[in-house]
Design brief:
single chain; 2 domains; about 75% helix
């Protein structure tokens, strides 16, 4: 079962169980998937759907930070609930040691020697992360190892 089908099945289950938070969260994610499918005119594969979920996760992190700055604990709590649901669809996060090993492998394969070649390493690295680490984490690690 692909990721989109899993989201749709979980939405149906949430509707049966009257789980409002899960219904709302999955509907937003599926709406973003459908929007991109309409824009591109093709069915999205699991990697593209995962990318959408990652964007939704990032949006929830930003919403939590904004709500806390505004003193709105209720909005922050709602965003945290949505975040927990969305993170359940992402693969297990890569540990710091795993990320470092992968970055070192990329630096060796690309032959990067300095920060000017960081783009080459990132180009090699990003497809291999597969949602297990953010681009920001990867770029920080590459920058640290090339410095």
């Amino acid at each position: 079962m692909n990721l989109k089908d899993r989201l749709q099945n979980d939405l149906k289950e949430a509707m049966r169980n009257n789980n409002e938070v899960q219904k709302r969260t999955l509907r937003m994610a599926l709406a973003a998937v459908r929007l991109l499918e309409v824009e591109k005119g093709v069915q999205l594969d699991d990697n593209a759907v995962m990318g959408i979920i990652q964007k939704e996760v990032k949006a929830r992190h930003e919403a939590i930070a904004d709500a806390e700055r505004a003193g709105r604990a209720d909005l922050a709590a709602a965003s945290r609930e949505e975040l927990a649901i969305l993170e359940g669809y992402l693969p297990q996060a890569m540990s710091e040691a795993e990320l470092e090993a992968l970055v070192r492998q990329g630096i060796a394969e690309v032959g990067a020697q300095n920060l000017q070649q960081m783009g080459l390493v990132m180009k090699w690295l990003m497809p291999r992360l597969q949602g297990r680490a953010s681009g920001e984490q990867a770029s920080q690690m590459v920058r640290r190892l090339l410095s």
